[in-house]
Amino acid sequence: MTGAHTNMAIFLMTNPDLKKNINHIYIMGGGVRSKNPTGCCPKNASSTCQPQQCGDHGNMFTAFRSNPYAEFNLFGDPFAAYQVFHSGIPITLVPLDATNTIPITREFFEAFEKNQRTYEAQYVFKSLKIDRDTWFDDQFYTSYFMWDSFMVGVAASAMRNIRDEENEFAEMEYMNITVITSNEPYGKPDSSNAFFGDRKIPKFNLKKNGVHSGHVQIGIQDPFCFRGNATGICKDGYTEEATGPDSVRVRVATRAKPNVDESSTLDREYYVNFLDVLNRPQYKGRFNFTTEFPYYKEVLYKPDFKGKKLGKIVVFDMDMSAGDFLAVGPSRRIENKPKPCYTNSLASAESKLASKPG
């Protein structure tokens, strides 16, 4: 899973009987013990250099002053992420802890530029180059990471080794964590919290003094989150280590594994595999929607308002960035074995689950 967890949370909350059909969920998002390596002043920097996100848990460069814990995917809908994490389904999390250790380095970029033997490789490289050429500062090689694509690689590798749960690309550790959905003090919800507000009974039967009953960050400039010139106090979306009944045991990727070939200029094992898989000749060919996505089809559906009040669920995924192209590219082609499906589309997930026994 990448992106906000809204659709998956709705699916799990409205179809609890189908949880049994999901063996495992792989997630890219959050930051547990992460320290943002971007925005730090160089060793020889002048006294005018002001650290930005340096050392923060999160990576939201537009929101780090109000919420230094915010990571893009989980910050999009913290409550939805909480529901997914606490669903009871085993979870492997690839947070910023790991993705911060696998940037798009200059060496990788140049190696990729020289290795474009398939249409797919050319397409992915051009998408990546767009990001490089339009990056907002000159620190692309130290601030652009293999976020979603790295998670997909870890997931595909782990699913090929499902018995021992090992993977080729990331070091793993079990941690007890939760997802912060509101800010203390709890039990004093204000107009920011739609689950409580003026309601006599909170939505979803949430506890009136529970972890969801505090202030919910309503924007990157939410006044509640600021305390003068100090670091912002909001933690919405933070994957925090926790104990007690509110914690969930999760398998967490902590860092990218180094390249077994120490003489290589590509110092991460995933760099090598990424370029190898994307350039395999058996996958060379022009893009064809029907062959690339054999389980998808376009359907014009007209609701029957006489017999039914609601039509089928339709979800439009409007978030397709260059990072997503990197994830879509080589992830499903590592081997000719059962291929994982990653989607933030509720409709797609529901159709796949409904087709399984039980």
UniProtKB/TrEMBL annotation:
UniProt protein name: Inosine/uridine-preferring nucleoside hydrolase domain, ribonucleoside hydrolase
Taxonomic source organism: Helianthus annuus (Common sunflower)
PANTHER family (alphabetical): INOSINE-URIDINE PREFERRING NUCLEOSIDE HYDROLASE FAMILY PROTEIN (PTHR46692), NUCLEOSIDE HYDROLASE 3-RELATED (PTHR46692:SF1)
Keyword Ribosomal protein in annotation: no
GO MF assignments: hydrolase activity, hydrolyzing N-glycosyl compounds
InterPro entries per UniProt: Inosine/uridine_hydrolase_dom, Ribo_hydro-like
Entry keyword annotation includes Secreted: no
UniProt similarity note: Belongs to the IUNH family.
Keywords, in A-Z order: Hydrolase
Residue intervals of the Inosine/uridine-preferring nucleoside hydrolase domain: 1-183
Any matching Pfam family: IU_nuc_hydro
